[in-house]
Design a protein that fits this description.
The protein has 798 residues and is mostly helical. Helices cover 74% and strands 0% of the residues. It has helices spanning 2-8, 23-35, 46-69, 79-93, 101-124, 128-154, 175-195, 199-218, 222-237, 243-269, 273-302, 308-334, 338-342, 347-354, 361-379, 389-397, 410-442, 451-468, 477-492, 513-516, 519-555, 559-572, 577-594, 597-613, 618-630, 634-647, 652-671, 675-686, 688-702, 716-729, 732-743, 749-762, 766-779, 783-794.
């Protein structure tokens, strides 16, 4: 009797705090986070990313409120949870040693976003219905991205950068990232197609898969093609009794897509948009008809009365088709029998596939990036150099002419940014996920209904991350969010531990009784994470808006308004040195115009703070250098200009800027009859052409096997600065040689002719001086006055 009463009594300890259910809103928000980011240029640029951070913070707030109301305690019972939390903390720790504080803060915010997405997904996908919902959202987003790429190629849609004229980039604006994204989405799409029961649903998934694979081929990403084949092979091994059906679907899709690209690309290159669209409709009709035949075949095979010859015809016919597609793909990849391959794929795609080899320029280039990344790691081994460190440091380490803001390897980029600690956490997470997936595969015979979606999610994310080992897919936050969400799906199926891998019905997970009694503790730390992501993101976004207004005010010469706006932008984002550098320049201009010592003092202080904040930012150093010129501090101006050579010793524009700045300062000292102060600068500038030539030879020796890289050449502007320096030093023969080289550029001919006239005058060659002065006078009406001032300045005894 007592037992019966106890059983009938309600469980007051588990009663929710309020009868509210935010779970549908959380799932809707997660759907948004997985669907729209790829359409916003992959969130590679700050405005879209910062808005997404704020959206993610809002969704996480609903997630925390829902768990607190339902007394669902948050537990970290699996190593995957701790590894990702540790990676976020590693990015936080790197702030203490960051070479670019704003960039490091931005990366920390990214990984906080990824951590929250992972938490929300892993704690929300405790049912097959929830997993299917998120997988459908992921695949629908990929189909939309593919459609944008195809419509941009045909000219029906004008999306910036989606069509290059030869290959598709779509909304991600980078074909390799697009390929990695579509590979992951394709694995998901095939799984949904395989599991669909409704004929309409199957047909829609088939058409979507056709679009994504067609765009994958038209991206001409060789790495993507390789990863696609490997991912499909791994995925097929885990299909159990559905292996042959998976093979039919995969090869049906691939075969039709290959034929579609064979007809589509020539139509696009011929600018026949109608013909290209017609090709897509025909290919779609073929896939839809084939899907109906497959459905019919299923029904026929299910009939016991179907004769064995017909069964054999269906089976072996399918096998022959698979063999044909595999054979063509092998021919295509190996570049053997090109005439046969050309019947299925455009020649451009065949040539692209045939160029896959270890000596390829892109492969060699990546090896160069990786080597330079390891050099940075060597100097920052423990905590790294902070988020965004690669883009500001690699110029100092590179030995050849290349420009890239990314390492082209997520693993090495993480190593550069967070050191060995972060590298092992990042690598350990994906290695452990691979082990979890392998154990899932080993137990597939005892797995429940969640097995196939979870298996496919794991294969998809490992394919995306594997591709990111030699490209920068995960540097696009949209793809990183997708990766951590897919990882969250796998983690969510483990229910706190991977000892029982998806045993039929996935349990809700082991809860922490202490946590159930302390919901407010979970609410507090949840609010802390929401504020940590939402507040900085809002401030940085507002700073960008205000700073853009300030830049427009500068261009419009509304300097007082610009000062107010830049001051506000700096208050909103005190980690960015660009606002301080702009303020230094504005205060210098206003102080000079109004003879305001207070403004000049502020300008100097802003300049020093800007350099301390971002010492490796060339834009900041150049702006500060100009501010020092306005402040009448010439030596500091030259020092900042010279810093550009240290930051990027292979950037020819740094030599140009240094030469112009040093000449301006030298002329300042010469005009004041302080020649000993001018001479060191003049001697440095006159050596610039030879310095550039030495660097050019060093670069040529390093990159002799890297075809197509830029060459480092002495520019006319460097010739001009060096010629002016030689003239001021009294070496008129050298000055004439250098200035004549500069005069070959139309934009510099007037200034070069003026200085040639000065050199001829100082050499007592009046006829030649008059000839060059006439050329200068023809392009610049003030040439006579300037010539007179220069000659008078030089007319003194040194």
């Amino acid at each position: 009797m007592v037992k019966h009463a106890a059983a009938a009594a309600p469980n007051l300890g588990n009663r929710p705090l309020l009868y509210l259910n935010f779970r549908p809103l959380v799932m809707f928000g997660l759907g948004l986070l997985l669907f729209f980011p790829p359409f916003l240029r992959g969130l590679f640029f700050a405005p879209e990313l910062l808005i997404t951070h704020q959206v993610a913070a809002g969704i996480f707030l609903l997630f925390i409120l829902d768990r607190v109301i339902k007394k669902e305690a948050e537990t970290f019972s699996h190593p995957l949870d701790w590894l990702l939390l540790g990676l976020f903390l590693a990015y936080l720790a790197s702030l203490s040693v960051a070479v670019n504080l704003r960039g490091a803060a931005g990366e920390a915010l990214k990984y906080l976003n990824y951590f929250l997405v992972y938490l929300m997904v892993s704690r929300s996908v405790r049912s097959l219905r929830a997993i299917n919902y998120l997988l459908h959202i992921i695949f629908a987003g990929a189909v939309g991205v593919a459609a944008v790429g195809l419509l941009s190629a045909t000219g029906h849609l004008n999306y910036p950068g989606a069509w290059s004229g030869a290959f598709i980039n779509s909304t991600l604006q980078y074909r390799n990232a697009l390929a990695g994204y579509l590979v992951a989405a394709q694995v998901v799409g095939f799984t949904l197609w395989l599991r669909a029961r409704n004929s309409l649903h199957q047909t829609l998934l088939a058409l979507g898969s056709l679009l994504t694979v067609t765009v994958l081929l038209l991206s001409q990403s060789r790495g993507g093609w390789i990863v696609y084949a490997l991912a499909a092979a791994v995925w097929l091994t885990g299909l159990q009794d559905r292996f042959w059906r998976g093979c039919y679907l995969f090869f049906l899709n691939l075969g039709v897509a290959m034929l579609a690209t064979r007809a589509f690309l020539p139509e696009v290159l011929a600018q026949d948009a109608t013909g290209a669209i017609r090709v897509l409709f025909v290919a779609g009709g073929v896939v839809a008809a084939a899907q109906l035949l497959i459905a019919l075949g299923d029904r026929l095979l299910a009939r016991q009365s179907l004769g064995q010859p017909y069964r054999a015809l269906l089976t072996y016919g399918g096998l022959l088709y698979i063999a044909a597609v595999v054979g063509v793909y092998a021919v295509y990849a190996a570049r053997a029998l090109p005439r046969i391959g050309a019947q299925f794929l455009p020649v451009a795609l065949l040539n692209r596939a045939g160029s896959i080899n270890p000596g390829d320029e892109s492969v060699v280039g990546r090896l160069v990036f990786f080597r330079d990344a390891l050099e940075i790691v060597k100097n920052h081994p423990v905590l790294g150099a902070g988020g965004g460190a690669w883009s500001v440091l690699y110029h100092r380490y590179k030995e050849s002419m290349y420009y890239t803001t990314e390492v082209h390897s997520a693993f090495l980029q993480t190593w550069v940014e967070t050191g060995t600690i972060g590298f092992f956490l990042f690598t350990g997470f994906w290695a452990l996920l691979g082990i979890v997936l392998f154990r899932l595969w080993l137990n597939r015979d005892r797995a429940g209904p969640n097995y196939l979606p979870v298996w496919s999610s794991g294969v998809a994310v490992l394919a995306l991350v594997g591709h990111s080992a030699f490209d920068f897919n995960l540097s696009l936050p949209a793809l990183a969010i997708l990766a951590w969400a897919l990882a969250g799906i796998v983690r969510g199926s483990l229910a706190g531990t991977d000892r029982h891998v998806i045993p039929g019905k996935t349990p809700a997970g082991r809860e922490n009784p202490a946590g159930l009694k302390q919901p407010w503790l979970q609410l507090i730390w949840g609010l802390v994470l929401v504020l940590a992501l939402g507040v900085p993101s809002w401030r940085f976004y507002q700073a960008g808006v205000v700073g853009a207004e300030g830049a427009r005010a500068i261009n419009s010469q509304h300097l007082f308004q610009a000062r107010e706006l830049m001051t506000k932008a700096h208050r909103l984002n005190p980690l960015s040195a660009t606002y301080l550098a702009d303020l230094a320049q504005l205060e210098a201009v206003l102080g000079l115009a109004d003879n305001d010592d207070v403004a000049r003092h502020r300008a100097g202080e802003y300049a020093r703070r800007a350099v301390r904040l971002e010492p490796f930012n060339p834009q900041v150093r150049a702006t500060v250098s100009f501010a020092y010129l306005l402040l009448g501090q010439p030596d500091q101006a030259v020092a900042e200009a010279h810093a550009l050579l240290t930051i990027n010793p292979l950037d020819i524009s740094a030599y140009e800027y240094y030469g112009r700045t040093a000449i301006a300062v030298a002329m300042h000292y010469v005009s004041r009859r302080e020649y000993p102060l001018a001479k060191p600068y003049l001697e440095q500038v006159v050596r610039l052409p030879s310095l550039v030539e030495v660097k050019s030879q060093e670069v040529a020796a390093v990159q002799r096997d890297w075809i197509g890289r830029r060459k480092m050449l002495v520019t006319p502007l460097i010739h001009l600065s060096a010629g002016q320096a030689a003239c001021l030093l009294g070496d008129y023969a050298l000055a004439k040689q250098l200035l004549k080289a500069a005069a070959e550029q139309q934009e510099l001919s007037a200034e070069a002719s003026l200085w040639l006239a000065v050199a001829a005058t100082r050499s007592n060659n009046r006829a030649e001086a008059e000839k060059h002065l006439a050329l200068a006078r023809a392009e610049d009406q003030g040439a006579d006055q300037l010539f007179k001032e220069i000659v008078e300045t030089l007319a003194f005894e040194r």
